[in-house]
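Input for the complex:
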Amino acid sequence: EIVLTQSPATLSLSPGESATLSCRASQSLGNYLAWYQQRPGQAPRLLIYDVSNRATGTPARFSGSGSGTDFTLTISNLEPEDFAVYYCQQRTNWALTFGGGTKVEIK
Amino acid sequence: QVQLVESGGGVVQPGRSLRLSCAASGFSFSKYAMHWVRQAPGKGLEWVAVMPNDETTSHYIDSVKGRFTISRDNSRNTLYLQMNSLRTEDTAVYFCARDLRYYFDSWGQGTQVTVSS
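Predicted:
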């Protein structure tokens, strides 16, 4: 099983600032990593797949990068609706696995 | 638009069974693999199982193998999860999700399963 480690666990920022979220894999994922956003009480939403491809409806302020074992989600100019929990997910091996999540909270 | 609506959750004693359903609409259900993903209270996301669109080889997380069975009825646009021998650690919100090359591009709102004596 591939383990995904997200850091930091919590990020405290103000609207308008930028957020940098990290996801590290226990083995190489190639270019197969996704990012999801989950707001309180809601289902997750796919933001980014294949490391850097924005899903339909994902604003341009969300960008993904990385390869191999180290990946980053960057959120530029945080909007109020961006304060949520973010999960990375790999599809290289069964079982499909998620990271533990990073909570982006309002400072 | 894509809609996924889960049902069938509830409170059940350890060792008992429950069957979840996921009614799909707004897309060609038979063309997509479908997944179940769960989230324990206050915890992260955990993928549970996948059923390909052609009902060939399904896959499961190790902790549910032999206890849970994923199935689908393409004529009814419905995905199922039969959960037997339930354990307290199966307590979670269960989401169904549509597959996008083994990512999850659409999600239902989830159904709560509580296993407790």
